[in-house]
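I hope you will forgive my troubling you with a question about protein structure. You will find the record immediately after this paragraph.
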Amino acid sequence: MLLGAAALLAGLALPVASAHARQAPEMVEARVRDFLHAQAAGLPGEVTIELSPFDPNNQLPACAALEPFLPGGTRAWGRISVGVRCDSPVTWTAYLQARVAVVADYLVAARPLRAGQIVGPADLAQRRGDLTALPDNTLTDGTQAMGHHTRFAVAAGSPLRGDMLRVPHAVRQGQTVSVISVGTGFRIASEGRAMNNAAPGERVRVRLANGQVVTGTARTDGKVELTL
């Protein structure tokens, strides 16, 4: 279980003799846990969630409608802070520490690989572990690696990442691409023009129709995902 308690924002306008009951910790923890499970839906593997306890001695008035949220740019992955907002009867915000683990099979080099070597089935092995504790863009499916050349030598047992291989570009410079903006409770699709080449999992800059330049992650389907 993670250590620590909810970090409460200062400046709450509480009456001296509050007529409201204290916020029940178990309600906050249940709402945050449900929220994280929803945010993690669709992730590969088995998702487990650990939460720090909400302060049982908090002096917050009981909330009529708790609203969990993730700070901008945060996703339900690894160690994160999760916010809980209340607007009634008194406005307050609190944060809980959480850990979202995603246990799944991933690829490792079954034997040493030379720079420029074409990866075949005998070069790959699978291990099981927490993907959130591994480097970004760790590969989980043999089809993501087989038939591609290694960019450099890879030691046996090393987790295989997309940037270790010469993978065909998912997005090419000058190409019109779909941009999927994902945030808490919303998903927006737009279009723009890619400003650089990018393989799946790599960063790509996109100029939107209004001239704004955003940076997202290239997906295998050629779309660019932007986390807000």
Q: What stands out?
A: The domain at 176-227 is CATH 2.30.30.760 (SH3 type barrels.).
